[in-house]
Specification:
With about 325 residues, this protein is of the alpha+beta class. The protein contains nine helices and twelve strands. The protein has a five-stranded antiparallel beta sheet with strand order 1-2-3-6-5, with helices on both faces. Strands 4-11-10-7 form a four-stranded mixed beta sheet, with no helix packed on it. A hairpin with a 5-residue loop joins strand 2 and strand 3. Helix 4 packs parallel to helix 8 and helix 6 packs across helix 7. The termini are far apart.
């Protein structure tokens, strides 16, 4: 595919040799000279994203550059996930493969294959995906003790790690919810992985109906089943307002119930998933706040997270086997 070449100018710090970086990334895919269009998001984990093109305008691939303690691990995790997890994605999900990765001027990069030419956006509506598609890309791996799952272990390590960044009340409450879940939910459905950011803006559908899934930076293996489902429905309710996180997650939980039942949850046990998804969002925010040494640039603030944990406790109150038996 060829597209017109523009002459846009991007201003960057004089300490960074942008042209050298772009050419080094281009050389990694076998081209001595390339041109690139560049974009940088404004989020806390912002990083340069490059659309690499030959001098003739052929699209060669898409590159991401990690430049600090937040973005470099994200780049490395995406490359690992695309190599080790994405190949196991169930139909109709697909992912562009890694064609190069490396380091240039202390910046990590990964280059992925171009997307198919004829793809279209997935609208930000819950029913843009079928029920089976909303299960996400990961295969189910049966019933497992959640306490032994790698993603659960990682979250537990985060929330029980004492630090000066997390407000004490938030730390106490998230630990309480974790203890309640793991004490009450010993063996539940598990999945081989979750994409971690299963949202419409990371999806595209091709002419054959396949769903191309990109931005695997937050993918994790060995997880409670249904995490991508909760994330999809939480973010498919129009513009995302961080202050409405509790409302969005609660609404997503209700919408997701038929899909969660298809994964092996009962009306009682799916409550543990809703609560665990909430805990995971809290753990992500805590990790980001620690990396940034404060909460100023973190979208989900402690007050919002506390409201989410209140909802998690409420659904756990109705998750006892005795209450299910009485219904």
């Amino acid at each position: 595919m060829r597209i017109p070449l523009s002459n846009d100018v991007v201003t960057v710090s004089s300490t960074v040799s942008t042209g050298d970086i772009i050419q080094a990334v281009g050389a990694s895919v076998g081209h001595a000279k390339v041109r690139a269009s560049l974009g940088v998001r404004s989020a806390a984990n912002a990083k340069p994203t490059l659309e690499l093109r030959s001098t003739c305008g052929d699209i060669l691939g898409f590159a991401k550059l990690g430049w600090n303690g937040i973005t470099i691990p994200s780049i490395d995790n995406e490359a690992r996930a695309l190599r080790e997890l994405a190949p196991y994605a169930v139909t109709p999900f697909r992912a562009a493969g890694v064609i190069a990765e490396g380091t240039v001027q202390d910046r990590r990069f990964v280059v992925t294959e171009p997307m198919p030419i004829r793809v279209r956006d997935v609208p930000p509506r819950a029913h843009s995906l079928s029920a089976s598609e909303a299960r996400g890309p990961a295969p189910l791996v049966g019933m497992h003790p959640w306490s032994a799952l790698a993603q659960v272990t990682s979250v537990v390590s985060t929330v029980f790690d004492d630090d000066q960044t997390t407000p004490p009340a938030l730390a106490v409450e998230v630990r309480r919810v974790v203890d309640r879940i793991l004490d009450q939910a010993p063996v539940l459905p598990a999945a081989g992985f979750w994409h971690g950011d299963f949202v419409c803006w990371n999806l595209a559908r091709d002419g054959d109906g396949a769903l191309w899934l990109f931005d695997w930076e937050t993918a994790e293996e060995d997880v409670p089943a249904g995490m991508d489902t909760m994330h999809w429905y939480s973010n498919a309710q129009g513009p995302v307002d961080p202050k409405r996180t509790r409302e969005r997650v609660a609404a997503a939980f209700e919408t997701a119930k038929p899909v969660l039942r298809s994964m092996g949850y009962s009306s009682r046990t799916m409550r543990y998933l809703g609560a665990w998804y909430s805990v995971t969002l809290v753990a992500r925010a805590i990790r980001l706040a620690r990396a940034l040494e404060g909460w100023e640039r973190v979208a989900l603030k402690p007050d919002t997270l506390a409201e989410l944990l209140t909802w998690a406790n409420q659904i756990l109150d109705n998750a006892t086997p005795q209450k299910e038996a009485r219904r």
